[in-house]
């Protein structure tokens, strides 16, 4: 039974109407990374950061999973081995599309985190600066998002699975953000077949064995059909 690891980035959710960060009209065009996606930015202007993620939470809640999300859930359900989806996305479209074996390495919009005790709880649609932690009572709630300079979640499990996978696919990723950009090299060292599925080749595209270019709803669905056939 083969093990498949799939890394997904903003490109898989773009057809659901969630802007990618690097698009000219995208989120980073309106905000500096330093202001909304770093611990320093949160310390400097917590309201700006909380409002930024409140807006993103509303956008994600209004979006619907697309055919690519559903295809990966079908792969997990019908493949006779292990399928692990590791997403850089903070929306919940994979879950709503049916994926269950899933790691949100960069956190999740629908989760809140206590900066004092590390307790997590379901985030309200609108968070406020100074929200109290339901566990310890500290007024230290923050979005449960991995900001630049922080360690992504479940890296031990990710690298353990990459080290024994038979197939690695990266879908809709830029290849600009580490450690995720290094996953293809890790999988290749394990002898895995590697494929990039994207609108265009990423910054690490030359490291993949093959590439499939086009909209995720078409390319991912076709790739899953081939694997399951």
TrEMBL record:
Q: What does the cofactor field's note say? A: Binds 1 zinc ion per subunit.
The catalytic site is made up of 106
Extract the PROSITE patterns matched here: SIRTUIN
Keyword Zinc-finger carried by entry: no
**Where, per UniProt, does this protein localize?**
Cytoplasm
Q: Which reaction does it catalyse?
A: N(6)-acetyl-L-lysyl-[protein] + NAD(+) + H2O = 2''-O-acetyl-ADP-D-ribose + nicotinamide + L-lysyl-[protein]; N(6)-succinyl-L-lysyl-[protein] + NAD(+) + H2O = 2''-O-succinyl-ADP-D-ribose + nicotinamide + L-lysyl-[protein]
**Which residues bind Zn(2+) per the record?**
114, 117, 133, 136
Report the Pfam families cross-referenced here.
SIR2 (PF02146)
Q: Which UniProt keywords apply?
A: Cytoplasm, Metal-binding, NAD, Transferase, Zinc
Q: Where is the Deacetylase sirtuin-type domain?
A: 1-229
Write out the residues that bind NAD(+): 9-28, 88-91, 172-174, 198-200, 216
Please state the protein's primary subcellular location.
cytoplasm
Q: Does the keyword NAD apply?
A: yes
**Top-level EC class, please?**
transferase
Q: Which GO terms describe its cellular component?
A: cytoplasm
What GO molecular function terms would the record report? histone deacetylase activity, NAD-dependent; NAD+ binding; protein-malonyllysine demalonylase activity; protein-succinyllysine desuccinylase activity; zinc ion binding
List the EC numbers from the record: 2.3.1.286
Required cofactor names: Zn(2+)
Annotated substrate binding lies at 53, 56
Function, in words: NAD-dependent lysine deacetylase and desuccinylase that specifically removes acetyl and succinyl groups on target proteins. Modulates the activities of several proteins which are inactive in their acylated form.
Report the family membership.
Answer: Belongs to the sirtuin family. Class III subfamily.
| Note on domains (UniProt) | 2 residues (Tyr-53 and Arg-56) present in a large hydrophobic pocket are probably involved in substrate specificity. They are important for desuccinylation activity, but dispensable for deacetylation activity.
What name has this protein been given in UniProt?
NAD-dependent protein deacylase
Question: What organism is this sequence from?
Answer: Sulfitobacter albidus
Name the gene behind this protein.
cobB
């Amino acid at each position: 039974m083969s093990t498949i690891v799939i890394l997904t980035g903003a490109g898989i959710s773009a057809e659901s109407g969630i802007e990618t960060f690097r698009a000219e009209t995208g989120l980073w065009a309106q905000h500096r990374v330093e202001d909304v996606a770093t611990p320093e930015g949160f310390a400097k202007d917590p309201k700006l950061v909380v409002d930024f993620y409140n807006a993103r939470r509303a956008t994600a809640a209004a979006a619907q999973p697309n055919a690519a999300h559903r295809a990966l859930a079908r792969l997990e359900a019908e493949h006779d081995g292990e399928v692990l989806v590791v997403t850089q996305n903070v929306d919940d479209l994979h879950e709503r599309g049916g994926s269950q074996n899933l790691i949100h390495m960069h956190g999740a919009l629908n989760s809140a985190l206590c900066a004092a005790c590390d307790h997590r709880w379901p985030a309200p649609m609108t968070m406020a600066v100074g929200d109290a932690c339901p566990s310890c009572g500290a007024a230290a709630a923050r979005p449960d998002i991995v900001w630049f300079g922080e360690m992504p979640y479940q890296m031990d499990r990710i690298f353990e699975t990459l080290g024994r996978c038979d197939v690695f696919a990266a879908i809709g990723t830029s290849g600009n953000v580490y450690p995720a950009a290094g996953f293809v090299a890790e999988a290749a060292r394990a002898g895995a077949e590697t494929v990039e599925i994207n609108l265009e080749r990423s910054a690490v595209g030359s490291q993949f064995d093959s590439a499939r270019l086009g909209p995720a709803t078409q390319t991912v669905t076709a790739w899953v059909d081939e694997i399951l056939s």
